[in-house]
Amino acid sequence: MPGTEGSRDVSAQQTIHVAGEWLGAASGATREIIDPADAKPFAVIAEGGTDDADAAIAAARRAFDEGPWPGTPVAERAALLRRVADLLVRDREKIGLLESRDAGKTVEEGRVDVDCVADAFRYFADLVIGEGAGRVVDAGSDDIHSVVVHEPIGVCTMITPWNYPLLQASWKIAPALAAGNTFVIKPSEITPLTTVALIELLVEAGLPEGVANIVTGPGHTVGARLADHPGVDLVSFTGGLVSGTKVAQAAALGVKKVALELGGKNPNVVFADACATDEGFDTAVDQALNAAFIHSGQVCSAGGRLIVEESVRERFVAELVRRAERIRLGRGTEDGVECGPLVSEEQREKTEGYVASALAEGAVLRCGGKRPEPTDARPATGYFYEPTVLDQCHRGMRVVREEVFGPVLTVETFRTEDEAVALANDTEYGLAGAVWTADSGRGRRMARRLRHGTVWINDFHPYLPQAEWGGFGKSGVGRELGPAGLAEYREAKHIYQNLAPQPVRWFAG
């Protein structure tokens, strides 16, 4: 496996980490990792199974029940998180390149992901170090000392997706460790390499044995076991709605705590007044491209639904199409490439199916809709697909209702503010959305009315580690990042101390 600076000297198949040891799968099975730019294998990992998952959970259980980490002073836990952030900065180039090859994104996107992960570790270190010793509760008597404290939940299992493997892992690992938990993580079997690299850095930073465990393997075996194992206290899952529902059902049988982030179908609402000036028009079009096509649309918060005011629709879409046709597709490691391939042939075929169904249902193809011609930077064997704009769409279309996870933008129109709100909220999901307007009052009004966990006004995609991330409806349960992201990994305990106990005399005898 491609290593990072200071990484361990082990064989390529030892990507399972349990109780401080790097191991191969108990069964001996392996899996090749494919570079989506040319469909060629470039790494080999251990293909773990239920036995490996059981061993990892047992190690995490021992580390929590008997090990030092849950009782480690907050200042020491925070210091370790900061050391991890420093190691990420040290290895930025190598990990960014690994993320690019693994997930197909550009190297610059990979570097930005590493920066964001370092920021997340620093944020949660600062958050826990800045807390007090608990919330004092006034019991109405000087003889009563009452305080609410927060303690780690216990053993946390984490299942992460293929599109942002390093970033999504950090959003779970950093708060879990800050709170004093132990964990087992299962990255996507398609893109596991940077999560393995992150565990290496946790070990290098001095995390005690058994606190951080990783099992590389498929969801239907390893992921299922992490969800239903009786030794687990919390399951955190990021991925698709169907898989997330299965995780929730399995966890419910053991009454485990569950945190689910299940994607979205995110509206990008453009009012005509946002386009009244040349600068405003240029910015709104540019951001619509960014919303829909960054990382080839393989983003849970992708703005794949453009909802534009009718009076500017034709001009807006025409310019959008002109620029979309000029997006430079290619291998993410090549200079000048703006957009990489889809992560797999399966994902490309899924995208093609959505486009075909949209055309059959009456959508008008304005650009894209096919595989590009091969070039030196874009091998014929790679999983590339052209940025696609589908005009004259409506909510009855499957491509408008369901999450595509590909470079596909649908266009709907509205005439009134109420109609824009109705269209934007007409979805089972509610992860994120944006409003473009020159009227600040309208922007704030729209933000209040939209049923989405994040609403951007005159922007798209930025997030802050100190602000909660999560969605309404079928976008999931719970929040990541922010104080609520830390709270997901904690239990509240009320400690009530009577300083002057007396008989109650409730019973006369």
From TrEMBL:
Record's superkingdom?
Bacteria
Which pathway is it part of?
Amine and polyamine biosynthesis; betaine biosynthesis via choline pathway; betaine from betaine aldehyde: step 1/1
Tell me which residues this entry annotates as catalytic: 261
InterPro entries tied to this protein: Ald_DH/histidinol_DH, Ald_DH_C, Ald_DH_CS_CYS, Ald_DH_CS_GLU, Ald_DH_N, Aldehyde_DH_dom
User: Which keywords are on file for this protein?
Assistant: NAD, Oxidoreductase
Q: Does the keyword Cytoplasm apply?
A: no
**Which family would the database say this protein is a member of?**
Belongs to the aldehyde dehydrogenase family.
What protein is this chain from? Answer: Betaine-aldehyde dehydrogenase
Tell me what organism the protein belongs to: Streptomyces silvensis
